[in-house]
Design a protein that fits this description.
Helices cover 63% and strands 0% of the residues. The chain is mainly α. It has 3 domains: 153 residues, no CATH class; 82 residues, no CATH class; 173 residues, no CATH class. The mean pLDDT is 85.
C-alpha cells in the first residue's frame, strides 16, 4: 500500500493523528512537498505553520493527496514537533499579516483548508474571519462552489462560536448560503443574525430576501426577534424603524394568510400591537383584500373629494387587491407580494390639489395610478441607495409594473390605448435596470427582473 493510500485509509478510519510521523513525512515528501522540519519547528503558532504548509505546496505534484489533507498533515507534524515547547503569543490577538498574504495567493482548495484549520489558532478573531470570508465568498461563487462557503462558516461556528457570533457579516453570509441551498435551515440562520441587536440593514435586507422566496415564517421569526433592538436603538432614524415595523406587520399577516382558514385569527391585534398602532379599519381591509375576500370597488368620481390620507388608503386597497392576482396568475409566493409596500406606492402619483388637475383626474384616472416616465427613469437610475438596501423589494416592484397595467385594465381603470402606452413606458424607462441587480447577493435576481420586463 502506498503512503498516500495509508494516509487516506488511516485518516478516514481513525483520524490523521493516528498516522505515524514517519508515514506523514514520507508521504508529504513523496508528493513533492518541500518540507523543512527545522523551520516548521520554529513556527510560532498555527497560522505560521499553515503559512509554511501553503508555501511548500507550490511544488505539490498531486493528485495522490487532496489539497485539503496536505495543510492538515503539516499542521499535525508541527504539533508533534512543538509538543514540549511552550506556546508563544498567548494573549495576542489577530493573525499575523504574513498568513493573510499567503492566504490570498494560495489556490482555492488550499484557501479552503487554511480557512478551516486556522480557527485553531488562539489569535483568530472576528476581523480575521471577515477578511478570510471576503477572500473566499466571491471566488467560490464565481467558481460555482458557493455551497462550500457554508461549510467554512459552519466549521467556524462549531470551533470558535465566540468569533463567529461577533461579526454580523458572517451571520448574514450564513443566511445567504441557506437561501441558496434547498432544504437548508433558513429560519435558524436568520435567527442567528437577529440576535445581533440593532444591526438593521443586513437583517431587513435578508428578511426581504426570505420573503421574496416565500420563507414567510423564517422572516417573521427574525423580524420579531430583532424588533426590540430596532425599536430601542438610538442609532436608527425614525423612518428606518417605521419601515421595519411595517415589514413586520405585513409578515405577520402573511403568516396568518398561510394558514387555513386565513383571516380572523384570535389575538391578531395583540400580536401586532408591539409594532405600533394601526389606522382604524386598516387591519380588516388588509386581510380581506389580500386574502381575496374583497375585490376593489372604488368610486372614481369621489376621488377628488378625498383627503390625502383617504386617497392613500384607496391606492393601498388597489395594491392589496393586486397582490392576490400576482399570486393567482403570476406564480408569486406569499411573502413576495407584500414587498410592493411601500415601494410601489412611493412611485404612484399623489392626489393633486389644483382645480384644473382635479378635473383631469375625473376624466383620466390613469394620472393617479401610473407613474410618469420621468419618475420611472429617476427610480431606475444607477447607484441607488435604496436598491442596495432593498434589492428584493425593488426587484418585486420592477417585476410587478407590467402586470399592474393589466390589472388596472381588467378593472376598467385604463383603456386599451393607455395600457399599450404604459407597456412601452415601462420597457423603455427600465431597459437597463436588470443589470443593476447583477451586483445583488442573490445571483438569480437580475435574470428574473429581465424576464419580467420582457413580459415573462
Amino acid at each position: 500500500m502506498s503512503g498516500a493510500d495509508r494516509i487516506d485509509e488511516t485518516w478516514n478510519e481513525q483520524g490523521l493523528g493516528a498516522c505515524s510521523t514517519e508515514v506523514l513525512l514520507g508521504t508529504l515528501r513523496h508528493h513533492g512537498v518541500t518540507l523543512d522540519e527545522e523551520r516548521l519547528a520554529r513556527a510560532a503558532g498555527v497560522a505560521e505553520a499553515l503559512a509554511l504548509a501553503a508555501s511548500w505546496m507550490r511544488d505539490w505534484k498531486g493528485p495522490g493527496l487532496s489539497a485539503a489533507i496536505l495543510p492538515v498533515a503539516v499542521l499535525e507534524l508541527w504539533r508533534r514537533l512543538t509538543a514540549t515547547r511552550p506556546r508563544e503569543g498567548v494573549g495576542a490577538t489577530g493573525l499575523p499579516r504574513a498568513f493573510h498574504e499567503c492566504f490570498m495567493f494560495a489556490p482555492l482548495d488550499t484557501r479552503l483548508a487554511l480557512a478551516r484549520e486556522v480557527a485553531a489558532d488562539p489569535r483568530f478573531e472576528a476581523e480575521d474571519a471577515l477578511a478570510l470570508g471576503r477572500g473566499l465568498r466571491g471566488v467560490l461563487r464565481d467558481a460555482g462552489r458557493g455551497a462550500e462557503f457554508e461549510g467554512v462558516l459552519a466549521s467556524w461556528e462549531a470551533r470558535v462560536p465566540q468569533v463567529y457570533r461577533a461579526e454580523p457579516a458572517l451571520l448574514g453570509w450564513r443566511v445567504e448560503c441557506a437561501l441558496e441551498r434547498p432544504g437548508a435551515d433558513v429560519h435558524g440562520a436568520l435567527m442567528g443574525l437577529a440576535a445581533w441587536r440593532g444591526h438593521l440593514v443586513p437583517l431587513l435586507k435578508l428578511a426581504e430576501w426570505c420573503l421574496y422566496r416565500g420563507h414567510v415564517h423564517a422572516a417573521l421569526a427574525g423580524l420579531t426577534a430583532a424588533w426590540p433592538g430596532v425599536r430601542d436603538s438610538t442609532r436608527l432614524f425614525g423612518w428606518d424603524v417605521e419601515d421595519f415595523a411595517q415589514r413586520a406587520v405585513f409578515t405577520t399577516l402573511d403568516a396568518v394568510l398561510s394558514r387555513e382558514p386565513a383571516p380572523g385569527e384570535p389575538g391578531l391585534l395583540e400580536r401586532l400591537a408591539p409594532f405600533g398602532p394601526l389606522a382604524a379599519g386598516w387591519l380588516d381591509r388588509a386581510l380581506a383584500y389580500r386574502a381575496g375576500e374583497w375585490s376593489w370597488q372604488g368610486t372614481l368620481e369621489l376621488w377628488p373629494q378625498l383627503t390625502p390620507e383617504q386617497f392613500l388608503f384607496e391606492q393601498q386597497a388597489l395594491v392589496m387587491a393586486f397582490e392576490r392576482q400576482l399570486r393567482a396568475h403570476h406564480g408569486w409566493p406569499l411573502g413576495r407580494t407584500q414587498l410592493l409596500h411601500p415601494w410601489m406606492l412611493v412611485l404612484l402619483p399623489d392626489m393633486p390639489r389644483k382645480a384644473r388637475e382635479v378635473e383631469k383626474v375625473a376624466r383620466e384616472p390613469s394620472t393617479l395610478l401610473l407613474p410618469p416616465e420621468w419618475v420611472l427613469h429617476e427610480w431606475a437610475r444607477p447607484n441607488s441607495d435604496s436598491r442596495y438596501r432593498h434589492p428584493h423589494a425593488e426587484a418585486a416592484v420592477a417585476a410587478a409594473l407590467l402586470p399592474w397595467g393589466h390589472f388596472l385594465r381588467q378593472l376598467g381603470l385604463l383603456n386599451e390605448r393607455v395600457h399599450a402606452l404604459w407597456r412601452i413606458r415601462v420597457t423603455r424607462a427600465l431597459a437597463k435596470l436588470p443589470e443593476q441587480f447583477s451586483f445583488a447577493d442573490d445571483p438569480a435576481l437580475a435574470s428574473e427582473v429581465r424576464q419580467s420586463l420582457r413580459g415573462g
